[in-house]
């Protein structure tokens, strides 16, 4: 059953044919930069959707361990995943039969919770972790070790890291982003089901609000510290910068990654209770921006370039040497830029009367060794914000180029 | 015990009507007996079958246990489909097995200690056998599974009797030893036992049944006393009631014929039992003998699938291959936790080991969930 059709039909019933026609037009609109919140984002393309796609509001991110020893079985699952992902991105059921159209004796091949929901901008983005190429015991399980890009080097341990291995790493990841949380969860749940016996869920993370904008068309959202986040993010419109900083180029490494990108994930617990007791001026000094406007200290507008040279009356830099915005700025990091598309999370509470809250940071880049690693090294050493945050999980994934057309599949160039 | 058994049953019943009617009675299986029984000498390490080449028809084995462990004897068709078995042969005793065998290749197996794959041997049955029609293959599943149920209920009665005797005799150590063994036969045939919705919770209910307004009786009530206080001095009436309930359910189960669709769903539900009750350690919360139940559920699921095998091979051979692979994977994974002739306790397994078991059950349960559709088509 086609969920989009169901919506269009519902439209006719409720508000009449005219409204349904315009709704259908909206649903057909699949251009990634302009899709409505409920429309579909094209799954097929040179690059994977879900990277420069307008950052959706919701996230379900999952990392898998591969449990089969069979390369053929893994490839077969990637084919099945790709087909299911393409269907779900188009607003259809995960399986060919659907949630309610099969015989009554059989469990449905779609779990059904997205019935009646529009595509909601769903994107599904796959990545391959370092352990897929060689596991912790040094074993090349699938004959892929020679294909491992140098840029997929294990991240170093950063000062202050409090990583839990049980929610870090993974052989594969899938990032599901959508404007409806149920659509994102539905997608991950169905992929996990298809993967039983081949992969096993290692960890997963829900995010309820985007903390970055990936287009100049989007307003900058706020993180749980209450500050605008991602003002200086790479944006879909900046083609030259995307080529230099986001997409893997010919000659960078093995050809299977050309047109792909590397993602780094960090689950960053925010100690919001102590942050909330911090005076406004101190909060702004820590971040280096005004809390209200998002303007860099000393500037007026959110998008003003921070002036790191300007000094206050006391002779100290207006933006402190240890302020977050300075340490993370490209000028301080050899020009390194990132495309961030992180999400706020609250995983309930921690049993000590505090919210288990924070930022699930996701950043895409051309080479983590030249981008995330130097930036995070500077932040981990000196950022005064560290008093209020803990990095508790870490992931690194090579996200291959897009699935070009029906019949192509996630990782085809890698598995050959 | 399942909490949603009534609903599951209602569904199975509604779907099963047609298939049930197609099943023939278990008549005409008493063919000409062979010249004399085939002697099987079983020890703890050897399974000596006097003849491994017989004619089709009713074949009789006389199994003598010359070992020191209790043993079992099986005749398997391909895929470990049980053609016949005798359970619970105590050391020094002999038992006979009468089994109807069409021409084909089979395996015999002794299982000293009543665990594992057993000591296998080839058995060739000569004669001509017409291939089963699709419907006949399906209909034979019911009879095949009924044979399995009868073999298990026989052992369930004997083992429960011994357990009850130990409890009434105040022998705590013996009762603890027998508890998981008696339960093995129960857990293997849970899809049948659950049909009798009032008896199942009396025999296998957990303490939560009190909240449903029922008395807490049966295996788990005695388990609680055995493992928490060690005081079973007042458990005589509970033991008698358990025996009476088991007697009643065995009589009913032996008369019950499960449709192919019920078998398919039963195979899946047994794995659901593992996933929801055994991997979590909820089932045997006082004794922590959950892996015994895990193994028994798995064996029961495999027996139900084996009964359906001829039909599945005709209709979905690739699914059969997948099921064989995944059953073997669960057996290997579970096999890591063997302790002597039994199993490690649930609380001796770490989280990674439990996750590995959970992954293996998920990998098996997904293809098993497709069996019902194959049977129904």
From TrEMBL, chain A:
Coiled coil start-end: none
PANTHER family attached to this UniProt entry: DEFERROCHELATASE, DEFERROCHELATASE/PEROXIDASE
Pfam families in alphabetical order: Dyp_perox_C, Dyp_perox_N
A GO-annotated cellular component: cell envelope
Protein name: Deferrochelatase
Residue ranges of every copy of the Dyp-type peroxidase C-terminal domain listed in the record: 220-403
Molecular functions (GO terms): heme binding; metal ion binding; peroxidase activity
This enzyme's EC code(s): 1.11.1.-
Position of the signal peptide: 1-23
This protein's UniProt keywords: Heme, Iron, Metal-binding, Oxidoreductase, Peroxidase, Signal
Cofactor section: heme b
Class of this enzyme: oxidoreductase
Function per UniProt: Involved in the recovery of exogenous heme iron. Extracts iron from heme while preserving the protoporphyrin ring intact.
Cofactor binding note from Swiss-Prot or TrEMBL: Binds 1 heme b (iron(II)-protoporphyrin IX) group non-covalently per subunit.
Organism the protein comes from: Phytohabitans flavus
Domain named Dyp-type peroxidase N-terminal: residues: 48-208
Lineage: superkingdom: Bacteria
One Gene Ontology term from the biological process aspect of the record: iron import into cell
UniProtKB/TrEMBL annotation, chain B:
Protein name: Lipoprotein
Record-linked InterPro entries: Cupredoxin, EfeM/EfeO_iron_uptake, EfeO_Cupredoxin, Imelysin-like, Imelysin-like_EfeO/Algp7, Imelysin_sf, Iron_uptake_EfeM/EfeO
Residue span, Imelysin-like domain: 141-370
Gene Ontology CC annotations of this record: periplasmic space
Protein's cellular compartments: Periplasm
Alphabetized NCBIfam families for the sequence: EfeO (NF041757)
Keywords: Lipoprotein, Signal
Source species, domain of life: Bacteria
Signal sequence, renumbered to the chain: 1-21
Organism: Phytohabitans flavus
Pfam families linked: Cupredoxin_1, Peptidase_M75
CDD domains, per the entry: Imelysin-like_EfeO
Family membership: Belongs to the EfeM/EfeO family.
PROSITE patterns: PROKAR_LIPOPROTEIN (PS51257)
């Amino acid at each position: 059953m086609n969920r989009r059709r169901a919506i269009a039909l519902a439209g006719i019933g409720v508000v009449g044919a005219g409204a349904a026609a315009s709704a259908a037009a909206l649903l057909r609109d699949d251009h990634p930069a302009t899709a409505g919140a409920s429309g579909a984002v094209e799954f097929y393309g040179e690059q994977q959707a879900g990277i420069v796609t307008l950052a959706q509001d919701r996230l379900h991110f999952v990392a898998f361990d591969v449990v089969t020893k069979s390369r053929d079985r893994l490839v077969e699952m990637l084919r099945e995943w790709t087909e299911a992902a393409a269907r779900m991105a188009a607003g259809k059921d995960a399986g060919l039969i659907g949630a309610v159209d099969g015989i009554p004796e059989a469990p449905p091949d779609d779990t059904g919770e997205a019935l009646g929901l529009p595509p909601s901008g769903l994107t599904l983005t796959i990545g391959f972790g370092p352990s897929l190429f060689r596991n912790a015991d040094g074993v090349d399980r699938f004959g892929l070790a020679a294909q491992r890009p140098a840029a997929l080097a294990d991240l170093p341990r950063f000062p202050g890291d409090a990583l839990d291995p049980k929610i870090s790493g993974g052989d594969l990841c899938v990032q599901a982003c959508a404007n409806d949380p149920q659509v994102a969860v539905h997608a991950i749940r169905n992929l996990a089901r298809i993967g039983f016996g081949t992969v096993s869920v290692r960890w997963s993370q829900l995010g309820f609000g985007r903390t970055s904008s990936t287009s100049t068309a989007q307003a900058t959202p706020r993180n749980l510290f209450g500050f605008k986040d991602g003002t200086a993010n790479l944006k879909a419109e900046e083609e030259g910068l995307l080529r230099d900083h986001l997409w893997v180029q010919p000659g960078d490494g093995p050809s299977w990654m050309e047109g792909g990108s590397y993602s780094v994930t960090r689950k960053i617990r925010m100690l919001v209770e102590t942050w909330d007791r911090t005076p406004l001026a101190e909060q702004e000094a820590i971040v280096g921006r005004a809390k209200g406007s998002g303007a860099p200290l000393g500037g007026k507008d959110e998008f003003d370039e921070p002036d790191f040279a300007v000094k206050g009356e006391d002779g100290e830099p207006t933006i402190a040497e240890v302020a977050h915005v300075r340490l993370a700025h490209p000028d301080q990091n050899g020009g390194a830029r990132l495309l961030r598309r992180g999400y706020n999370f609250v995983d309930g509470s921690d049993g000590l009367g505090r919210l288990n809250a924070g930022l699930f940071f996701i950043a895409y880049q051309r080479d983590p060794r030249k981008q995330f690693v130097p930036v995070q090294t500077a932040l981990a050493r000196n950022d005064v914000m560290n008093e209020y945050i803990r990095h508790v999980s870490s992931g690194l994934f090579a996200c291959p180029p897009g699935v070009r057309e029906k019949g192509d599949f996630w990782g085809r160039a890698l598995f050959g | 015990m399942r909490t949603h058994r009534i609903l599951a049953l209602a569904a199975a019943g509604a779907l099963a009507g047609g298939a049930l009617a197609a099943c023939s009675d278990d008549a005409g299986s008493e063919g000409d007996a062979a010249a004399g029984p085939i002697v099987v000498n079983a020890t703890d390490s050897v399974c000596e079958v006097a003849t491994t080449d017989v004619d089709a028809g009713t074949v009789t084995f006389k199994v003598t246990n010359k070992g020191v462990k209790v043993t079992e004897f099986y005749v398997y068709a391909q895929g470990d489909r049980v053609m016949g078995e005798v359970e619970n042969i105590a050391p020094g005793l002999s038992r006979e097995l009468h089994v109807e065998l069409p021409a084909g290749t089979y395996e015999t197996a002794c299982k000293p200690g009543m665990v594992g794959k057993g000591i296998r041997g080839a058995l060739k049955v000569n004669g001509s056998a017409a291939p089963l029609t699709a419907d006949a293959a399906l209909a034979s599943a019911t009879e095949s599974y009924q044979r399995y149920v009868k073999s298990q209920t026989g052992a369930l009665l004997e083992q429960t009797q011994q357990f009850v005797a130990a409890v009434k005799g105040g022998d705590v150590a013996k009762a603890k030893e027998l508890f998981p063994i008696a339960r093995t036969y129960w857990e293997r045939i849970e899809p049948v036992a659950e049909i009798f919705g009032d008896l199942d919770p009396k025999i296998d209910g957990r303490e939560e049944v009190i909240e449903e307004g029922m008395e807490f009786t049966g295996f788990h009530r005695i388990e609680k006393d055995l493992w928490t206080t060690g005081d079973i001095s007042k458990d005589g009436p509970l033991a008698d009631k358990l025996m009476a309930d088991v007697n009643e359910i065995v009589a009913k189960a032996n008369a019950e014929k499960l449709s192919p669709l019920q078998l398919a769903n039963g195979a899946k539900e047994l794995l659901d039992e593992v996933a929801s009750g055994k991997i979590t350690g909820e089932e045997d919360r006082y004794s922590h003998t959950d892996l015994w139940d895990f193994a028994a559920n798995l064996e029961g699921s495999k027996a139900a699938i084996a009964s359906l095998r001829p039909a599945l091979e005709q209709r979905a051979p690739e699914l059969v291959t997948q099921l064989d692979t995944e059953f073997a994977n669960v057996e290997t994974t579970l096999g890591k936790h063997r302790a002597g002739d039994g199993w490690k306790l649930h609380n001796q397994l770490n989280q990674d080991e439990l996750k590995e078991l959970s992954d293996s059950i998920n990998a098996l349960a997904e293809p098993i969930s497709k069996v019902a559709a194959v049977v129904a088509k």
